[in-house]
């Protein structure tokens, strides 16, 4: 081999070695620097343990919300419910202690109205609830107690209510007197004198006075020892308005007959003489031993056990401790202050008294 051939061989060998070295270097580089487009294997991160303030369910773990879900707001936002919707809900579901017509808001509304001087509105709303008969005993007593307080202003005070459906204001005409005016309105002159604070002889033409359109009615409930006063009709009648209630004493051994009575004409007496059926003789009106307590309202039976019964009535007592007990001979007893008012309300020949068990 000549010198030229040896030089060519060395050149080719050098090129071959360089090519082999370049290939080797490229392979090593690829092994140490993998391509970014190839997916890299990743070790899954361990899940963090879930922490809860709630006790574990005996039925197993509850399904957890997605981690990217927004947590619920707490406390939850208030819902602005219209008042009429709240009242509708009360009527439909009803609180445990109040009926649909007289939820707790009824007494609150009535009190608010009386505080604002709107006595007639409060009375009408309460009486409508009472007439609905959808009340238990406790609710009935609460409404009657408030109606009785309202009556102290609307009926028994000197304050006048021109728009009162059960009375109003009357202008005295020439020739009028209290008895004549009272007769035209089915009430008594004594009641008109009481609620106006005026003596009959002081009545003057052109004056305005307070009037009541009667007659009044009474209901005695023997098991409660109460006498309730109504205006415009007996309970259950559309026009009936509860006025107030008084405690009473009744007949010994359940001797007060149940049934319907009417106040007997010409048998309402002040300072009556007592004719004892027990052999005590006649006790004068001014005798401290007279058990009638200064008033007598004679009754005539018209229905039930009352029919044919004689010498029964409503009267006062000289024994206040007998109220709430069965102590009389069958009559209905009232405390001295109470019988004075009831006497003024009862109208002869028109006021009915119903005695119930």
Question: Can you describe what's shown?
Answer:
The protein is of the alpha+beta class. The protein folds into three domains: 55 residues, no CATH class; 57 residues, LysM domain (Membrane-bound Lytic Murein Transglycosylase D, Chain A), CATH 3.10.350.10; 141 residues, Beta Barrel (L,D-transpeptidase catalytic domain-like), CATH 2.40.440. Helix content is 31%, strand content 20%. The chain has eight helices and 14 strands. A hairpin with a 7-residue loop joins strand 10 and strand 11. Helix 3 packs antiparallel against helix 4 and helix 3 runs parallel beside helix 5. The longest helix has 30 residues. About 19% of the residues have low confidence.
What is shown here, in short?
By secondary structure, the chain is an alpha+beta fold. It has helices at residues 3-32, 83-93, 104-115, 119-132, 137-154, 178-184, 189-196, 336-345; strands spanning 167-171, 208-212, 216-221, 226-231, 241-247, 250-251, 259-270, 274-275, 282-283, 295-304, 312-315, 326-328, 332-333, 352-356.
Considering DSSP H and I runs of 4 or more, what fraction of the residues is helical?
25-40%
Radius of gyration of CA atoms, rounded to a whole number: 47 Å
Unreliable stretches covering 5 or more consecutive residues:
33-100
Order of strands across the main sheet: 5-4-3-14-7-10-11-13
- What is the CATH first-level class name of the largest domain? Mainly Beta
Question: Could you please say which CATH topology of the largest domain applies here?
Answer: L,D-transpeptidase catalytic domain-like
How many discrete structural domains?
Answer: 3
The ordered H/E elements are: HHHHHEHHEEEEEEEEEEEEHE
Derived from helix and strand composition plus strand pairing, the structural class reads alpha+beta
First-residue to last-residue Cα separation: 152 Å
Question: Number of helix segments?
Answer: 8
């Amino acid at each position: 081999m000549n010198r030229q051939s040896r030089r060519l061989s060395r050149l080719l060998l050098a090129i071959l070695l360089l090519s082999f070295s370049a290939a080797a270097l490229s392979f090593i580089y690829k092994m140490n620097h993998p391509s970014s487009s190839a997916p890299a294997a990743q070790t899954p991160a361990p899940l963090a343990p879930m922490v809860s303030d709630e006790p574990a369910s005996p039925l197993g773990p509850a399904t957890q919300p997605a981690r990217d879900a927004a947590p619920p707001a707490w406390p939850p936002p208030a819902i602005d419910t219209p008042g009429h919707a709240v009242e509708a809900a009360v009527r439909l579901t009803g609180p445990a202690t109040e009926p649909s017509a007289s939820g707790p808001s009824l007494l609150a509304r009535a009190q608010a109205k009386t505080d604002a001087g709107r006595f007639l509105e409060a009375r009408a709303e309460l009486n409508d609830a009472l007439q609905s008969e959808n009340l238990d005993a406790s609710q009935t007593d609460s409404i009657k107690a408030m109606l009785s307080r309202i009556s102290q202003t609307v009926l028994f005070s000197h304050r006048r209510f021109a728009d009162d459906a059960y009375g109003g204001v009357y202008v005295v005409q020439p020739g009028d007197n209290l008895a004549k005016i009272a007769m035209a309105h089915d009430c008594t002159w004594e009641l008109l004198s009481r609620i106006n604070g005026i003596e009959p002889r002081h009545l003057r033409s052109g004056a305005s006075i307070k009037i009541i359109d009667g007659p009044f009615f009474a209901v005695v409930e023997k098991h409660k020892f109460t006498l309730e006063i109504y205006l415009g009709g007996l309970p259950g009648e559309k026009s009936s308005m509860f006025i107030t209630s008084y405690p009473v004493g009744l007949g010994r051994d359940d001797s007060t007959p149940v049934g319907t009575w009417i106040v007997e004409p010409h048998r309402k007496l002040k300072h009556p003489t007592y004719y004892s059926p027990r052999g005590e003789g006649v006790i004068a009106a001014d005798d401290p031993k007279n058990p009638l307590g200064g008033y007598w309202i004679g009754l005539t039976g018209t229905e039930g056990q009352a029919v044919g019964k004689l010498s029964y009535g409503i009267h006062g007592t000289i024994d206040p401790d007998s109220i709430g007990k069965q102590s009389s001979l069958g009559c209905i007893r009232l405390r001295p202050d109470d019988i004075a008012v009831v006497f003024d309300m009862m109208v002869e020949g028109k006021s009915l008294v119903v005695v119930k068990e």
